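Input record, target 12 of the design panel.
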Protein backbone atom coordinates (compact mmCIF):
# COMPACT_ATOMS: atom_id res chain seq x y z
CA UNK A 1 0.00 0.00 0.00
CA UNK A 2 3.02 2.27 -0.37
CA UNK A 3 2.14 5.89 -1.09
CA UNK A 4 -1.07 5.71 0.93
CA UNK A 5 -1.47 6.85 4.53
CA UNK A 6 -3.78 5.61 7.29
CA UNK A 7 -6.14 8.32 8.57
CA UNK A 8 -6.33 8.37 12.36
CA UNK A 9 -9.01 9.46 14.80
CA UNK A 10 -8.38 12.16 17.40
CA UNK A 11 -6.84 9.53 19.71
CA UNK A 12 -4.32 8.29 17.13
CA UNK A 13 -6.13 5.08 16.20
CA UNK A 14 -6.69 3.98 12.60
CA UNK A 15 -10.13 4.83 11.20
CA UNK A 16 -9.97 2.49 8.20
CA UNK A 17 -9.79 5.45 5.81
CA UNK A 18 -6.69 5.52 3.60
CA UNK A 19 -5.63 8.58 1.58
CA UNK A 20 -2.68 9.87 -0.41
CA UNK A 21 -0.23 12.26 1.26
CA UNK A 22 -1.66 15.16 -0.74
CA UNK A 23 -5.24 14.30 0.23
CA UNK A 24 -4.46 13.80 3.93
CA UNK A 25 -2.90 17.28 4.12
CA UNK A 26 -5.48 19.04 1.94
CA UNK A 27 -8.28 17.67 4.12
CA UNK A 28 -6.38 18.15 7.40
CA UNK A 29 -6.79 14.54 8.46
CA UNK A 30 -4.81 13.22 11.46
CA UNK A 31 -2.05 10.77 10.55
CA UNK A 32 1.19 9.38 11.97
CA UNK A 33 4.78 10.32 11.07
CA UNK A 34 8.19 9.38 12.39
CA UNK A 35 11.08 11.64 13.37
CA UNK A 36 14.34 9.79 13.84
CA UNK A 37 17.57 11.23 15.27
CA UNK A 38 20.55 9.23 13.98
CA UNK A 39 23.90 9.34 15.79
CA UNK A 40 27.15 7.70 14.72
CA UNK A 41 29.85 6.10 16.85
CA UNK A 42 31.44 9.53 17.47
CA UNK A 43 28.18 10.96 18.90
CA UNK A 44 27.58 13.07 15.79
CA UNK A 45 24.03 13.52 14.53
CA UNK A 46 22.96 13.47 10.90
CA UNK A 47 21.05 16.62 9.90
CA UNK A 48 19.34 17.01 6.54
CA UNK A 49 19.16 20.21 4.55
CA UNK A 50 15.84 20.03 2.74
CA UNK A 51 15.64 20.57 -1.00
CA UNK A 52 14.48 23.96 -2.27
CA UNK A 53 11.71 22.08 -4.12
CA UNK A 54 9.87 20.39 -1.22
CA UNK A 55 6.47 21.65 -0.13
CA UNK A 56 7.42 22.77 3.38
CA UNK A 57 10.55 24.15 5.04
CA UNK A 58 12.53 24.27 1.78
CA UNK A 59 16.24 24.89 2.37
CA UNK A 60 15.97 24.44 6.16
CA UNK A 61 17.92 21.95 8.24
CA UNK A 62 15.85 19.19 9.78
CA UNK A 63 16.46 16.09 11.79
CA UNK A 64 18.01 12.91 10.43
CA UNK A 65 14.95 11.12 9.09
CA UNK A 66 11.36 12.29 8.61
CA UNK A 67 8.57 10.33 6.99
CA UNK A 68 4.92 9.55 6.77
CA UNK A 69 4.05 6.01 7.78
CA UNK A 70 2.63 3.98 4.91
CA UNK A 71 -0.84 2.50 5.33
CA UNK A 72 -0.64 -0.77 7.22
CA UNK A 73 2.98 -0.21 8.23
CA UNK A 74 4.21 -0.06 11.81
CA UNK A 75 6.02 2.99 13.10
CA UNK A 76 9.25 1.02 13.74
CA UNK A 77 9.16 -0.61 10.29
CA UNK A 78 8.78 2.85 8.79
CA UNK A 79 11.76 4.15 10.76
CA UNK A 80 13.93 1.27 9.55
CA UNK A 81 12.75 1.67 5.93
CA UNK A 82 13.47 5.39 5.89
CA UNK A 83 17.03 5.05 7.24
CA UNK A 84 17.66 3.08 4.04
CA UNK A 85 15.56 5.25 1.69
CA UNK A 86 16.54 8.72 2.94
CA UNK A 87 20.18 8.10 3.89
CA UNK A 88 21.16 4.95 1.98
CA UNK A 89 22.26 3.26 5.21
CA UNK A 90 21.46 -0.34 6.07
CA UNK A 91 19.48 -0.20 9.34
CA UNK A 92 20.50 -3.74 10.36
CA UNK A 93 22.70 -3.58 13.40
CA UNK A 94 21.49 -0.11 14.41
CA UNK A 95 20.16 0.33 17.91
CA UNK A 96 16.80 2.05 17.40
CA UNK A 97 14.83 3.19 20.43
CA UNK A 98 11.38 4.72 20.63
CA UNK A 99 11.46 7.85 22.82
CA UNK A 100 7.96 9.39 22.85
CA UNK A 101 4.94 10.44 20.80
CA UNK A 102 3.11 13.74 20.67
CA UNK A 103 0.48 15.50 18.60
CA UNK A 104 1.26 18.66 16.62
CA UNK A 105 -1.15 20.53 14.38
CA UNK A 106 0.00 23.26 12.00
CA UNK A 107 -1.52 25.04 9.04
CA UNK A 108 1.30 25.60 6.56
CA UNK A 109 -1.03 26.79 3.78
CA UNK A 110 -4.74 26.48 2.94
CA UNK A 111 -3.97 23.20 1.14
CA UNK A 112 -1.34 21.87 3.56
CA UNK A 113 -2.75 21.20 7.00
CA UNK A 114 -0.57 19.07 9.26
CA UNK A 115 -2.30 17.03 11.93
CA UNK A 116 0.51 14.74 12.98
CA UNK A 117 0.97 12.17 15.65
CA UNK A 118 4.77 12.24 15.79
CA UNK A 119 6.62 9.09 16.86
CA UNK A 120 10.13 10.07 17.97
CA UNK A 121 13.07 7.66 17.71
CA UNK A 122 16.78 7.79 18.38
CA UNK A 123 19.14 5.47 16.53
CA UNK A 124 22.82 4.77 16.96
CA UNK A 125 25.12 2.97 14.58
CA UNK A 126 28.56 2.81 13.09
CA UNK A 127 28.87 4.74 9.84
CA UNK A 128 30.95 7.45 8.19
CA UNK A 129 29.80 10.51 6.28
CA UNK A 130 30.89 8.80 3.04
CA UNK A 131 28.43 5.95 3.73
CA UNK A 132 25.43 8.29 3.42
CA UNK A 133 23.66 8.70 0.09
CA UNK A 134 20.63 10.95 -0.36
CA UNK A 135 17.68 11.49 -2.68
CA UNK A 136 18.43 14.92 -4.19
CA UNK A 137 14.70 15.40 -4.90
CA UNK A 138 13.96 15.72 -1.19
CA UNK A 139 17.30 16.41 0.45
CA UNK A 140 19.82 18.97 -0.75
CA UNK A 141 22.62 17.78 1.54
CA UNK A 142 23.41 16.24 4.90
CA UNK A 143 25.82 17.20 7.65
CA UNK A 144 27.30 15.26 10.53
CA UNK A 145 27.09 17.62 13.50
CA UNK A 146 28.72 17.05 16.90
CA UNK A 147 26.10 16.59 19.63
CA UNK A 148 27.27 19.72 21.49
CA UNK A 149 26.81 21.85 18.32
CA UNK A 150 23.35 20.32 17.84
CA UNK A 151 22.44 21.45 21.38
CA UNK A 152 23.70 24.95 20.54
CA UNK A 153 21.54 24.97 17.38
CA UNK A 154 18.46 24.12 19.44
CA UNK A 155 19.18 26.79 22.04
CA UNK A 156 19.78 29.41 19.32
CA UNK A 157 16.35 30.19 17.92
CA UNK A 158 18.01 31.90 14.94
CA UNK A 159 19.89 28.76 13.87
CA UNK A 160 19.51 27.00 10.53
CA UNK A 161 17.30 24.32 12.10
CA UNK A 162 13.62 24.53 11.07
CA UNK A 163 11.84 26.15 14.01
CA UNK A 164 9.08 23.56 14.14
CA UNK A 165 11.56 21.10 15.71
CA UNK A 166 12.86 23.25 18.58
CA UNK A 167 10.45 21.98 21.26
CA UNK A 168 10.77 18.38 20.17
CA UNK A 169 14.56 18.62 20.12
CA UNK A 170 14.55 19.94 23.70
CA UNK A 171 12.82 16.73 24.80
CA UNK A 172 15.18 14.58 22.72
CA UNK A 173 18.15 16.25 24.43
CA UNK A 174 16.55 15.54 27.79
CA UNK A 175 16.13 11.83 26.97
CA UNK A 176 19.61 11.50 25.41
CA UNK A 177 21.21 13.29 28.38
CA UNK A 178 19.43 11.09 30.90
CA UNK A 179 20.26 7.84 29.10
CA UNK A 180 24.03 8.22 29.44
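The sequence produced for target 12 reads:
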Amino acid sequence: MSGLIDVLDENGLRTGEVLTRKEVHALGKPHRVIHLYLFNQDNMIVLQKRSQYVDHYPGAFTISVLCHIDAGESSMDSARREIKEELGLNPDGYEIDFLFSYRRDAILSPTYIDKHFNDIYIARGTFCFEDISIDKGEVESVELVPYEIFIDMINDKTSKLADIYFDECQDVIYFVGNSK
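The domain at 4-178 is CATH 3.90.79.10 (Nucleoside Triphosphate Pyrophosphohydrolase).
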